């Protein structure tokens, strides 16, 4: 099937979204929506999204932005300019939704608050992402992703039990921003669904914040605290409610995560590592008993893994049908045959960078290949100014991205930057 036809089958084909995003949270939300087929017009300041200055670059072109800005049309506007604000309002007049992650009150101060936006499009869904939300005593405080981790309860849990010499580490990615972006995308689509088919329905305002996004992951910890006064403490690599489940050192300095906590899997695990007597020991007969005696179990498993390279240990346990995995770094991900076979890792042509690896979108749809969901890589700032302001806004019969020149040639228009 031609790529254009596959793209037209994506569930959000035809949806039109304006992004007023910078750094991570809002652009992450719109990247997901663009991967799902929506037309996303990313509005950047004349100097470009400041995230373009982060990380590595090839000839001045940021590597991260190849993924961060993929499948989006990039235009540049100075929102302090009345003429450019008028252009933005025209974009919003044809859009289904707008996503922004400025500090609360900023859009209102420059005359682009919800009242102005709904004045040109009463059905516009406005998704607002901020550090603490659009109201509450902390709304005006600045926040980045690390603050969401800290206040949302996650960073407290990432420490090793009893360790006080070093601070609890972050997880290594901007998890607060990414979570807020996922929730914003979900809420935006839900709001659009809520007004679909009702000509009298008005657009909704969606309020998502970094702290609440992290806090939502805290499972049953809040009711446990409310009922019993329990405060969950850092667990390290293990969990108190299942055993053996931990991460063990291997002979080559790598680590192996093993989840052997069901009764059947536990017996297979202990047989595989040469400890059949422990498999039959009544002290380890069920999960509750194994949790009581987990230190002895972990010591026995670690004694075995320390004598075997991680890949070899993984192969032994996989042959015994014990859930396990080495702790992958990016080199492992990029070369893993499963990642490659499912196109989770794709090699694509980026006109600004050359051949580059991209992660696939994290969802699959029948009839659409992962490759067809990646229409083009992140463009230069303002690459689509002519197409958007000179063509899209001048046409009343605007079609979704499946019908535009950019969908047929993913890199058309980048020369306009």
From TrEMBL:
Q: Name one GO molecular function term.
A: transferase activity
Keyword Transit peptide attached: no
Pfam families membership:
CoA_transf_3
Q: Which InterPro entries match?
A: CoA-transferase_III, CoA-Trfase_fam_III, CoA-Trfase_III_dom3_sf, CoA-Trfase_III_dom_1_sf
What are the UniProt keywords, alphabetically? Transferase
Q: Which domain of life is it from?
A: Bacteria
Coiled-coil residue spans: none
Protein name, UniProt field: CoA transferase
Q: Which organism is it from?
A: Plastoroseomonas hellenica
